[in-house]
Amino acid sequence: MMNPPETVYTDSHRVFCDGATDIRAGAALGHPRVWLEIDEKGYVECGYCDRRFVLKGGPADQQAA
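^ Zinc finger CHCC-type domain-containing protein, sequence as received from the core. Prediction below:
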């Protein structure tokens, strides 16, 4: 059974992902760093690792509900 993708809540519309934010060895174990832009949906997903970045207080923020 696969785990659901990680969700990261952010205050910024522009975020980066390298797939290794929580890995001590860093990007060597992740993927190339990509910059992502959160649009009117209130979230964006990384094309490499499926990590979802959600804008705090935005339309996709389930924590605000």
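The CA atoms of residues 15 and 36 lie 5 Å apart.
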